[in-house]
């Protein structure tokens, strides 16, 4: 039996990097948001034994290091079953792009295996497997707007933002996440400051509890996004204050920009291009290399893509994806 699953991407609405932990990871605070761009993962269960990964992209490993392979191996072990699992990845999302493509592929493979093997994995077992495979894998078991904590694997559903037009810009380069973290540690050491930000600073993004997070974060984003065109901040202030200041006050920034942009100046240029094209907010997603801009209308986003492409940037329109839409659109033909 063959099953096709859409493997959606994510962006990060803010990302705070905390202290390096004893296990080698860093404490993180972020808000994940799924978007309507996807790969397609096809899963086939047949007679025999073993796991085979197929992908036409040379940038995707097809051995045991592939996230789909690692998930499939654990799923078979958890189900105490054997069989020949063939996973075919049809790539559209960039590799090392900060959109969580490999992690999303892994969850698509897991869900596809459930269908292909005609069985169910307990929710807590799915989360355990996902967290073992990667820090941002569990978010794709939730979808929509999600608070990420710990090393990113602790996920909590937030009140969904409505569909918001986005422009996704993908410069032709990849960013190594481990190197980005190492560069952050060097920056923190050079500044003679701890790698972690203080708890009150982090709370600007995450809030002290679920209710604070939903009310503070979501309302800040919405008030900013739909503010009037007068140049007056939706949260008060004079005409000189741009709507972007609402995001700054809410702490909605990506710390990786401090180390990735100096290393890859082209990424900083891409962010500037998004802003000049009319984005109300632009940011690096994860450690990059993908950047995104958020727009008040689809028309504005379409216009921005035209401008960016004329300037030589690779760009496409997308939209944030609510939790309901994420699961409704999961299953492909």
Description:
The chain is α+β, with helices and mostly antiparallel strands. Helix content is 37%, strand content 24%. The protein is built from eleven helices and ten strands. Helix 1 runs antiparallel to helix 3. Strands 1, 2, 3, 4, 5 and 6 form a six-stranded mixed beta sheet that branches. Strands 8-9-7-10 form a four-stranded antiparallel beta sheet, with helices on one face. A hairpin with a 6-residue loop joins strand 8 (281-284) and strand 9. The chain has helices spanning 67-79, 101-117, 123-133, 177-190, 199-206, 210-225, 244-249, 257-263, 265-276, 298-310, 323-328, and strands at 2-20, 26-46, 50-55, 84-90, 145-149, 154-157, 165-169, 281-284, 291-294, 315-319. Mean pLDDT is 83; it is low at 196-215 and 221-249. It is globular.
Give the gist of this structure.
By secondary structure, the protein is α+β, with helices and mostly antiparallel strands.
Describe the protein's topology.
Blueprint: E1 2-20, E2 26-46, E3 50-55, H1 67-79, E4 84-90, H2 101-117, H3 123-133, E5 145-149, E6 154-157, E7 165-169, H4 177-190, H5 199-206, H6 210-225, H7 244-249, H8 257-263, H9 265-276, E8 281-284, E9 291-294, H10 298-310, E10 315-319, H11 323-328
Parallel strand pairs: 3-4
Antiparallel strand pairs: 1-2, 2-4, 2-5, 5-6, 7-9, 7-10, 8-9
């Amino acid at each position: 039996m063959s099953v096709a699953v859409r493997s959606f991407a994510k962006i990060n609405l803010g990302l705070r990097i905390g202290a390096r932990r004893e296990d080698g990871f860093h404490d993180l605070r972020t808000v994940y948001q799924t978007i309507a761009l996807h790969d397609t993962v096809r899963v086939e269960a047949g007679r025999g034994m073993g796991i085979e990964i197929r992908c036409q992209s040379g940038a995707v490993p097809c051995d045991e290091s592939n996230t789909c392979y690692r998930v499939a191996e654990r799923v078979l072990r958890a189900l105490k079953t054997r069989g020949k699992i063939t996973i075919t990845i049809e790539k559209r999302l960039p590799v090392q792009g900060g959109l969580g493509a490999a992690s999303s592929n892994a969850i698509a493979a897991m869900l596809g295996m459930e269908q292909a093997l005609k069985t169910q994995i307990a929710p807590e077992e799915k989360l355990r497997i996902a967290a073992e495979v990667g820090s941002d894998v569990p978010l794709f078991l939730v979808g929509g707007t999600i608070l990420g904590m710990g090393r990113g694997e602790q996920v909590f559903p937030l009140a969904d933002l409505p569909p918001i037009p986005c422009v996704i810009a993908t410069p032709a380069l990849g960013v190594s996440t481990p190197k980005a973290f190492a560069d952050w540690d060097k920056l923190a050491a050079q500044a003679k400051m701890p790698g972690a930000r203080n708890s009150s600073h982090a709370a600007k993004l995450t809030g002290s509890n679920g209710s604070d997070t939903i009310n503070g974060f979501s309302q800040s984003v919405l008030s900013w996004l739909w503010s009037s065109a007068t140049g007056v901040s939706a949260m008060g202030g004079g005409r000189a204050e741009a709507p972007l200041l609402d995001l700054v006050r809410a702490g909605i920034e990506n710390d990786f920009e401090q180390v990735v942009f100096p290393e890859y100046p082209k990424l900083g240029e891409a962010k500037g291009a998004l802003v000049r094209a009319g984005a109300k907010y632009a940011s690096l997603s994860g450690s990059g290399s993908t950047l995104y801009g958020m727009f008040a209308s689809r028309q504005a986003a379409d216009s921005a893509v035209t401008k960016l492409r004329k300037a030589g940037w690779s760009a496409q329109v997308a939209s944030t994806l609510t939790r309901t839409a994420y699961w409704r659109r999961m299953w492909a033909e």
